[in-house]
Design brief:
about 65% helix, about 110 residues, mitochondrion, about 0% strand, single chain, mainly alpha, Cyt_c_oxidase_assmbl_Pet191, Mitochondrial protein PET191, disulfide bond
């Protein structure tokens, strides 16, 4: 994975882990993305972050960005949060509240 898309990838993973599809319905994140029935219920924040990640990946192969660069290198902003979610060190209710808060801020 190119370092410039690492933060976007982790942001998508964190958002999917917090989504009702994973937290409440107990599907895995891949099922939530692949299944159209589950995909339509994803929070707008997750969809926006997925779009940003795909744009970043597209920028890797875009020859016009080869000289100027795709994006800033990874900052490690989501590393600790990602590790906690992967290891199960989180409170599901708290994560759902965070997702609701982030989703409502994006709509404003």
């Amino acid at each position: 994975m190119v370092a410039s898309c690492k933060d976007q990838k982790k942001a998508v993973a964190i958002c999917l882990q917090r989504s009702p599809c994973v937290m409440i319905e107990r599907h895995n994140p891949q099922e939530c993305l692949d299944n159209p029935e589950l995909n339509k219920d994803l929070p707008e924040l997750c969809i926006a972050q997925m779009k940003a990640f795909l744009d970043c990946k597209r920028g890797i192969v875009d020859m016009t960005k080869r000289f100027t660069g795709n994006a800033p290198l990874s900052t490690g902003k989501y590393d600790q949060q990602y590790e906690n979610l992967c290891k199960g060190k989180f409170d599901p209710r708290e994560e759902m509240e965070k997702l609701k808060l982030l989703n409502s801020q994006q709509k404003d």
